[in-house]
Amino acid sequence: MKALIMLAKGAIGFVWLVLLINIFYPFPGVAAMALYIMTGFLFMMHGLQMLIFIGAFGDKITMSRWEKWSILIFGIFALLDIRRKHMM
């Protein structure tokens, strides 16, 4: 399970890399506009996930600063990793 979570985090990290490259060096044509929309959507969804999780469980479990930020970056895969760490 840990290997799959790490693989998924790597994939999401690659997606963020492509989206950030598009911000500084836009891709040609309408691809840049589509990637801008995807960047905004991904940022909003992961931000909402982070706010909901911290609001619901922030007082029940202790999380490091990196764990909180990793939810914003990796989304559900960070949540699965946090759950795995705190269930043991």
TrEMBL record:
Alphabetical list of InterPro entries matching this protein: DUF1145
Transmembrane domains' residue ranges: 7-27, 33-57
Pfam families: DUF1145
Keywords: Membrane, Transmembrane, Transmembrane helix
Protein name: Membrane protein
Lineage: Bacteria, Pseudomonadati, Pseudomonadota, Gammaproteobacteria, Vibrionales
